Amino acid sequence: MTLTGNKGLPIVLIIDDPAPLNNIYWWHAAEAQGTENPVLTSGEAVVRDIPVDFLRRFVDVIDRRGIKGKFSVLPYPAGLGAITDGWPGCDQSALTAWLDLVRQRVTPLMDITPEILTHAKTLDLDSMTLLSQNEREWSRHQTAVTMTPYISYALEILNAADLEATGVTSPWDFGIDVEDEYRLAIRDAMREVNGRTKTWYFLHTQNKGTTFGSRVVHNDGDSWQVSLCSQVGDQLWTTMDSRETGVDFVNAAADAYLSEDGSSGRLAELYNAGTPIIWCTHWQSLFSNGRMTGLRALDEISRRIDTLWGTTATWMKCSELAAIIASNDTGEQIS
Length: 335
Prior knowledge:
- The protein contains eleven helices and eleven strands.
- It is an alpha/beta fold.
- It has one domain (10-327): TIM Barrel (Alpha-Beta Barrel).
- Strands 1, 2, 3, 10 and 11 form a five-stranded parallel sheet that branches. Strands 6-7-9-8 form a four-stranded mixed sheet, with helices on both faces. The chain has a two-stranded antiparallel ribbon with strand order 4-5.
- Helix 2 (52-65) runs parallel beside helix 3 (92-106).
- The chain is globular and about 55 Å long.
């Protein structure tokens, strides 16, 4: 599929797991390790909170480099409470500042999606209590009937925060075992809550090869749905485990994506094949347990992209790329 057109090769950056003030990875590690004091493989304690200042630094980078894509906002992070209300111990002024920054400085460059509701334990919508199963496990035995209200509630919270979503992000691989039902639930929720009949979702990754992995999964007149597939693995994840912060370390992290001369790295592999670049990383990978080395690497990678491909690659939002994919659809419909 040729998608370059007059704008150059599309490139989007998917940021998974952002939540106001919380490091969602702390909750995942705490559950996995069965402790309130989770540690990284390095033995270092996982930092529980991510301050508003980190979001400020992030928006400075994406604004300076013109980075576009998708930014998740967890509507009910870790089951603590809705972002519109806060939760016990929440710094309300910091919560307000975080949401204001996303509205004012992130949304001009990036689509907003829920990463369903909690990205942790499943919220029972009848009792508003948490189930023992996390959202990934819960999704495995659901249908469109049960998933639609769950997704709808996530969208409603974002709307109440003035952060309307254009698509949906799966926490982990939510919905992969019942993807036909999941796709229908997304379409129904988006239509009912946001009035959208053209939408997309992020669930799949394909980090080897250069065959384009994204596809139209529904196309019916003025209604379409696109499954966006990330084809660049999160090499910045390892920055959480390393206490190195020097220039050489940051450059080495950047090299895994794109070398200084453009001859190597996963981004170069896709670019040279003419494959639109969909690249996923995580909020905690950029935060790097407080050292922010991942964010510095992102800045450097983006500098190299601009230097090497400034006139031949174009940053765009996920919704923009999804629309291009849909417009190039051959008519084959999956569901």
